[in-house]
């Protein structure tokens, strides 16, 4: 199989750097986009990836970066109050080759079909911290909502990966996922950031995830283990062929 050429939009962030590493481990050709001021954060990958410096909502930068790519991994960043996420998403939707796999990152607060059931804690966070962040002109959660609305409405080959709370630490393997927040398997609400990145990269070659918005959780988290993923099954599925892993990891 031909090695993929992929673009990572937001490559210099924590999630982005893990994605670069996973992609290089798979032998993919990587083009990374990040802000001019952040290029040095990618020094560890010098000579192994192509870096394009610029705002990730700059349509010209994105157009050049995604040209000829088989897949695009995009970190949706709701920073500022000027529609940064929406601009990024729209540029990727408009300029990526039509057959490309497009994988976007977001949080559980995004809903695709309105059937997610949120805890009071998450509802309160979105209701209180959201407006405060907007008031301080720091971040705008509605921007990520609008970005995802456009992605869901597009006829591209998209996936929106909805991350739970994140923690650092060694990989536990590919996270498990469900279509709806509120499903018991997601209850632990914690994923290693390195594994969030692994799920994003893996989604590039998983057609089952086309036009899905999987909500993910760590595969060794108590709720994943308790709800259908016995620990011995987890052991056996890590490192097994993709079809086997997905049959075990998916939960709808
Ligand atoms: N943090 C969480 O608990 C959590 C939970 C669930 C889902 N997520 C999702 O995971 C993804 C990654 O988030 P993360 O929190 O882990 O952070 P991250 O990977 O470090 O990404 C932060 C991104 O924001 C960019 N950025 C920072 N300040 C900016 C500014 N002023 N203007 C424009 N861009 C700016 C960074 O670019 P530079 O490198 O240029 O600074 C970087 O690309 C996001 O899509 C988020 O919605 C996060």
From TrEMBL:
Domain spans labelled NAD(P)-binding: 10-206
Question: What GO molecular function terms would the record report?
Answer: oxidoreductase activity, acting on the CH-NH group of donors, NAD or NADP as acceptor
Query: Mind telling me which InterPro entries this protein's record contains?
Result: NAD(P)-bd_dom, NAD(P)-bd_dom_sf, Polyketide_Oxido-like
**Basic residues bias: start-end ranges:** 243-252
For region Disordered, the annotated ranges are 230-252
> What's this protein's name?
NAD(P)H-binding
UniProt organism field: Asanoa ishikariensis
